Amino acid sequence: MEVFYYLVFGFLAAVVAGLELSKNNKDRINTSQPFNSFKNSYLLVYSLMMAGDWLQGPYVYFLYSQYGFSKGEIGQLFIAGFGSSMLFGTIVGSLADKQGRRRACVTYCITYILSCITKHSPQYKVLMLGRVLGGIATSLLFSAFESWLVAEHFKRGFDQQWLSLTFSKAIFLGNGLVAIVAGLFGNFLVDSMNLGPVAPFDAAACFLAIGMAVILSSWTENYGDPSENKDLLTQFKGAAVAIASDEKIALLGAIQSLFEGSMYTFVFLWTPALSPNEEEIPHGFIFATFMLASMLGSSIASRLMAHSSPKVESYMQIVFVVSAASLLLPIVTTFLVPAANVKGGSISFSGCIQLLGFCTFEACVGIFWPSIMKMRSQYIPEEARSTIMNFFRIPLNIFVCIVLYNVRITSFASFHCFDLIEYYCCFLHVNAFPITVMFGMCSIFLFVASILQRRLLVIADKPKSEDWNAMKERDAEAEPLNVA
């Protein structure tokens, strides 16, 4: 069965290379030299930021276990990270609209560097502080950088269609190539150089520091709505009003939460799905294959978005249906393929089928990221972009915390799993729900997302019932009454 892994990886690599090399003028967006310089500057920073993130993932659980913490204590640390992203990260991320997106990006670097430094301490409270800082940094990573990019793109007068090129390249590099290279580099530091499990965190801090230097030296500041001296509560209220008053924004938030919730659940469950009888599977190599599939998806997305037809709102319906079907495979194989009773061994026939389905899902993930970024740039008002984007992450973080609470974790290594340590166990057992039930739940979420996407397509060209400026004027008139 070992040959099967190489065949899948080689096939995906060949398809990705073929897609990239076969692009013609019809598949490319004609741009200007100033835009290319701007795009490359952003991609450099984004790649450095993602390298800092990817380097840490495979060794978080391993480091905690080396410090002697129990699985229950480690589980609490992970839940604290997602809880911090939901509570504190939402507040800090929303400040970017008032205090500046460039400043928020620098804050991300500083916060994540401090989180890396805490990994040198074996004290539980210090590590908990690091998880809190990491949760805040995660919210900034997925809101501040995109908000800065969109605002700066339009401030410089670039064509809106060119934005999709930056999005697709960012996912191709940051969530694909950089993830693979970072995993290999982290393994080199820990295994080949024998620098210990803290080394990847130190390397991550160095990449983040380099990225911060580039930001400080070459990025200009931009804001959301600096005209009024609003407090944070008023800012949250304005974002909530924007979501409630514009169906397109509300649909976009629901679609994002449903897909990302399914994606994070998949991250926790793919290992036990492929090795239900403790089969020996190469976790790091499989993860690299997933990232290659994601690169394939982003390459497909770049071609799709280079043309005016089909619209993003149209083809994303198909993407959600395909992703829903791919996560049904663990359920289908459970009923159709006889289960093996022998412990250990190589991956089963059922596991091979599921692996192909999971690669399909990862390709859908690669299409999803640049496509959702493009839709956010179209529908979310510039004045509260970071605030609304962090609002979208609240239900996601709640969902992930519930999933973590309802599983008994044997190893969190499957999260960002690129660990090549041979003895590293990488599977979890579901305590509250069987794996098939959780995959079925994810598939339902994705199918619902396709229905909501269909609704978004229908109303995409309809004007908003009330624009952002009108809402601000209405709130300004209402504020004296609220005071009285």
From TrEMBL:
Sequence intervals crossing the membrane: 6-22, 43-62, 74-96, 128-150, 170-189, 201-219, 285-306, 318-340, 346-369, 390-407, 427-452
InterPro entries, per the entry: MFS_trans_sf (IPR036259), MOT2/MFSD5 (IPR008509)
Record keywords, A-Z: Membrane, Transmembrane, Transmembrane helix
Keyword Transmembrane helix: yes
GO cellular component: membrane
Pfam families reported in the protein's UniProt record: MFS_5
A molecular function (GO) term: molybdate ion transmembrane transporter activity
Family: Belongs to the major facilitator superfamily. Phosphate:H(+) symporter (TC 2.A.1.9) family.
Protein name (record): Molybdate-anion transporter-like
Organism the protein comes from: Rhododendron griersonianum
